[in-house]
Specification:
single chain, 391 residues, mainly alpha, Cytochrome p450, three-stranded mixed sheet, three-stranded antiparallel sheet, 10 strands
């Protein structure tokens, strides 16, 4: 068996692969890469929920790869962030950062998000053809997270390119170089925020540091995580949602008639085409059983929210977009202690962007045949390279 997650067809339509694998077993051992390595892939919804909360599945990638010849040179702020740590370190960092992204603070950001959306769309002319990814789905979350972190406007395109390389480059050397570029940039930005305190996320994190929750390395790694994860998946959330609605004209027409339904439709849009295909790295610290399968100690375990969200057991007729579905159990944001803390911000950005699109451009349609759309070649996230539309 070859690696099913690197088949060229997988990146265009991962769901056929997920369905085939899940029908054989919701948990199974698969080859990964070309060096004879293996991992356990979790495609069932119940099994994924269990795996997300099993303390025997560690996220401490540095511990797993210690002493193993990886040939990688990631910046420490990228390699040792909150997503790659276990309690108690993870608990301490999350407790410091989580209050900044609850519904209250995010609600206060909605006017700014609306201003950014309006500014971006004001440059679009009725009847014109635009790339919705380049023109909206990328710059909106980049602008918002950079504003929160205090990244100067002149640096935002550069920061976005580094983030794109971290997620999307096929060459490990490019990924490593991008990690050092963004890690060193954020180290300098954090140092400047320490020396000139003010308002924003970084000064707030330093206040947590003064309370003994964080040190400066923690603040830097959190800043990198917020910068990179804070916009990449939201970009795909927006792009995938717009495409799904264009593929389902009756659903799009319904939201045009009543944009107030958009907020309640976000869970189904996330379930239907999750911006996260395979969750970030985990491995078994001891033997365990999952979905009736024995997983030995020391193996990577790949949890696939993209697959779990199309599992027919919790979601009847899962290949159908149904805006009336109760999709609150989706796993697009993960589950358990590592659930995405930026979920409220991502939802706010997607809701505001979709509302503006259906209101300002009621004739929105694809500008190219669907089969010509190009997807990013990464199993971690699922998103389009571009989405040409006619306004």
């Amino acid at each position: 068996m070859t690696d099913p997650l690197h088949d060229p067809l997988f990146f265009r339509d991962p769901y056929s692969t997920y369905d085939r694998l899940r029908s054989a077993s919701p948990v199974q051992k698969i080859p990964t890469g070309s060096r004879g390595h293996h991992a356990y892939l979790v495609t069932g919804h119940a099994e994924a929920r269990q795996a997300f909360t099993d303390p025997r599945l560690s996220k401490d990638a540095a511990r797993f790869f210690a002493g193993r010849p990886s040939g990688r040179d990631l910046h420490p702020a990228v390699a040792r962030n909150m997503l790659a740590s276990d309690p108690p370190g993870h608990t301490r960092q999350r407790a410091a950062a989580a209050p900044l992204f609850t519904t209250g603070p995010v609600g206060g950001m909605r006017p700014y998000i609306s201003q950014v959306v309006d500014r971006l769309l004001d440059g679009w002319a009725q009847g014109a053809e635009v790339d919705l990814v380049k023109g909206l789905a990328v710059p909106l979350p980049v602008t918002v997270i950079c504003q929160l972190l205090g990244v100067p406007e002149s640096d935002r395109d550069m920061v976005s390119r580094w983030s794109n390389d971290l997620f999307d480059a096929d060459d490990p050397d490019i990924i490593d170089a991008a990690s050092h570029a963004v890690g060193e940039y954020m180290t300098d930005l954090v140092g400047a925020a320490r020396d000139t305190p003010g308002e924003g996320v970084l000064p707030a994190l330093f206040q947590r540091g003064e309370a003994g929750l964080l040190d400066e390395d923690d603040v830097t790694s959190l800043a990198v995580l917020l910068l990179v994860a804070g916009h990449e998946t939201t970009t795909h959330f927006i792009g995938n949602s717009v495409l799904a609605l264009l593929q389902h004209p009756s659903s799009l027409a319904r939201l045009r008639r009543d944009p107030g339904l958009i907020a309640g439709s976000l869970d189904e849009l996330l379930r239907y085409d999750s911006p996260v295909g395979i969750a970030t790295f985990r491995y078994s610290t001891e033997a365990l059983e999952l979905g009736g399968v024995e997983i030995p100690a020391g193996f990577p375990v790949l949890i696939a929210p993209g697959a779990a969200n199309r599992d027919p057991l919790p979601f009847a007729d899962p290949q159908r977009l149904d805006l009336d579905r109760n999709a609150g159990g989706h796993l697009a944001f993960g589950h358990g202690i590592h659930r995405c803390l930026g979920a409220p911000l991502a939802r706010a950005e997607a809701e505001i962007a979709l509302r503006a699109l259906v209101t300002r451009f009621p004739g929105l349609r694809l500008a190219v045949p669907e089969e010509e759309l190009e997807w990013r070649r990464t199993r971690l996230t699922r998103g389009l390279r571009s989405l040409p539309v006619v306004l």
